[in-house]
Sequence to fold (201 residues):
Amino acid sequence: SKHGPIISECNPFSSKYQIDFPYFKKNKNSILSKNLISMKWQGNNVSQDISAFQWINNARNLDEFVGAVKLGGCPGLNFVYASSSGTIAYVPSYKIPIRYTGIKSILPYQGNDSKYDWKGEYPFTAIPMLVNPPSGYIATANNKVTNDTKFPAISDLWEDPSRAIRLAQLMRDGKNFNLVRVRQMQTDINSPQMLYMNDFL
Fold:
């Protein structure tokens, strides 16, 4: 369809859903159960992600690196940059559509009403990027990129911040990050999330 492939037979919102899903109660009177469901996805569009990786590998400075990252964006990825001169940066690569609600909804819309159509995508410059932050390091562990409510939702599927919190703790506590210390960090088993949950047990 003009909104992407039809996925009615595998979408849990549809009464045509063929797989037993014990935690989902079907509503046979729902408009979703009586209509086809399609999936619009940025990945269905023409992509330059392979070219992006080629140029990233050949980047000689941050500007070239950012320019290469801009070529990609689907799937959304986080890139971390470091130069021999000491510059560090966090450069996200996302192609975020401008949806009807502006941000949050992940529920299906009516495909026969053009007001719900995507209105292009947010410019690359609208996405948060870090260059030489005051902390002196950048920690990213599949955690939420920003809590800024003015920014469009990148995703609704983030890891809890436990790994990022622990990584920040290790970075703050450390001084000499030699090979042994980095290996210890890679194999660290302390979980702030579990410590937090333990308080309630």
Remarks:
- The helical segments are 49-58, 62-69, 162-173, 179-186, 192-198.
- The two ends are 51 Å apart (CA to CA).
- The CA atoms of residues 128 and 146 lie 8 Å apart.
